[in-house]
Amino acid sequence: MDYMAELEALRTGKRDELVITPAEFMAFQVAYREYQYKTQIVGEAHRGGEVHYHRQVNEEN
Questions:
Q1: Quick one: which H or E segment has residue 44?
Q2: 50: closest CA among 35, 30, 28?
Q3: 55 C-beta neighbours (distance < 10 Å), count
Q4: Which pLDDT tens digit goes with each residue over 12-61?
Q5: Close Cβ partners of 35 (under 8 Å, ≥ 6 residues apart)
Q6: Rounded Cα gap, residues 54 and 61, in angstroms
């Protein structure tokens, strides 16, 4: 999976949510650390080890 493209789709609103499974997490983290807009993406841990990422909603915008 092209995680950089998925993160960009999240940031730009083309995608609402990105679900990362425990098996994908380490590979995803490599891309996430390199992504320049990571402060605009928020992850929320769910039961079973999945992490659901979505765009940070800024109340000023």
A1: strand 41-45
A2: 28
A3: 19
A4: 999 999 999 999 999 999 999 999 999 999 999 999 999 999 999 775 54
A5: 4, 7, 41
A6: 16
The whole model's pTM is what? 0.86
Of the chain, the end-to-end C-alpha distance in Å amounts to 31
The answer to whether 18 and 56 have CB atoms below 8 angstroms apart is: no
pLDDT at 7 over 80: yes
Asked if residue 52 lies in contact with residue 17, where contact means CB atoms within 8 angstroms, the answer is yes
**17 Cβ neighbours under 8 A, 6+ residues apart:** 10, 52, 53, 54
Q: What is the largest CA-CA distance in the chain?
A: 36
